[in-house]
Design a protein that fits this description.
Elements (H helix, E strand, L loop, with lengths): L2 E11 L31 E7 L13 E10 L5 E9 L5 E3 L3 E10 L7 H10 L9 H16 L2 E4 L13 E4 L5 E8 L6 E2 L1 H14 L3 E6 L3 E2 L1 H4 L1 H7 L5 E5 L1 H12 L15 E3 L5 E3 H6 L2
Parallel strand pairs: 9-11, 10-12, 11-13
Antiparallel strand pairs: 1-6, 2-3, 2-14, 3-4, 4-5, 7-8, 8-9, 14-15
Helix pairs in contact: 1-6, 2-6
Length: 294
């Protein structure tokens, strides 16, 4: 099994922290924190402070209390919990909100055919190397979903399942009226870092036999060999009617990032993807950079 952590929904823990900033005894996560270590993977947790872009720095002369949102996040698995720290006028004393937010934790085996496609996409956004661990069927479904978004066309499987003989073609790209306009070959690579020219030539041959003039060869390998990369231009140079596009692992990841970002991020209230945070060393970064590493 290849288990990965997923975060399902936001939990609000009322009175999870006392006025001094210490987690209340008996809270769901208090016992898990030892020396700022993540309760999931035991990696170090860093603290980031939210900066309000609308804060003009003005403070009234009377009594006031302003809270800053703090995000305690694991840079390894992205699990987090959030608190609020306030500064009281006059005394300069720090005051802590009694509310704590954190995501519900779930574990799923990403190597099975039963994992939900959206869960798989979310995991691959954080751990792209995990593409080597997914099943052949899920790799095909992943490419099908990504191409559907990228090409704005319907994309259908060409066979009953990923293990059936496909004649060199895995997917059909269809126009809006339902006619098939191009073919797709999907190669899931576990150990191979480059896609050889022989596979690309075989796909071109399959396109000719099946009567396709346009095709997409998609591999999860990091890159195509230099010889394979030349084939699309070679087809143009000989005035071939065949049109071929090569999509390697890096390009596939870029397409995934455009397709799979969730509209609703599991983060504390009022936090957005473009919210700006101050790191312990003083540099700033957005929520998207914290979660996705962008």
């Amino acid at each position: 099994m290849t288990n990965r952590i997923f975060y399902r929904e936001l939990v609000e823990l009322d009175h999870g922290i006392d006025n001094s900033g210490k987690m209340d005894k008996g809270s769901l996560i208090e016992s898990s924190f030892k020396n700022d270590l993540c309760p999931i993977c035991l990696a170090k947790i860093e603290r980031y402070r939210y900066t309000d872009p609308d804060d003009d720095g003005y403070r009234p002369s009377g009594n006031w209390l302003i809270f800053d949102t703090l995000l305690h996040i694991c840079n390894k698995c992205s699990w987090w919990h959030s608190t609020q720290e306030g500064l009281q006028n006059g005394t300069g004393q720090k005051v802590f909100s009694p509310y704590v937010y954190y995501p519900v934790i779930d574990k799923l085996d990403i190597s099975t055919d039963t994992i939900a496609l959206e869960d798989l996409k979310s995991n691959l956004l954080l751990r792209w190397d995990d593409r080597k661990l997914i099943s052949a069927g899920k790799a095909e479904s992943l490419v099908q979903s990504i191409l559907k978004e990228h090409l704005s066309c319907d994309v259908y499987t060409a066979t009953a399942n990923a293990n059936s003989p496909d004649g060199g073609i895995d997917l059909h790209v269809c126009s809006k009226n339902g006619s098939i306009i191009s073919a797709v070959q999907v190669k899931r690579r576990i150990k191979r870092d480059s896609e050889p020219v022989s596979e690309v030539r075989d796909f071109v041959g399959a396109m000719v036999i099946k009567g396709f003039q346009k095709g997409y060869f998609v591999t999860t390998a990091e890159r195509f060999t230099s010889v394979a990369q030349r084939i699309p231009n070679q087809l143009k140079e000989i005035n071939s009617r065949l049109e071929l596009e090569l999509i390697d692992g890096q390009k596939l990841f870029e397409l995934l990032k455009n397709d799979a970002k969730p509209e609703k991020l599991i983060v504390p209230p009022s936090v957005k993807l473009d919210s700006v945070w101050v790191a312990p060393d003083g540099h700033t970064l957005t929520t998207s950079q914290l979660i996705y590493g962008e």
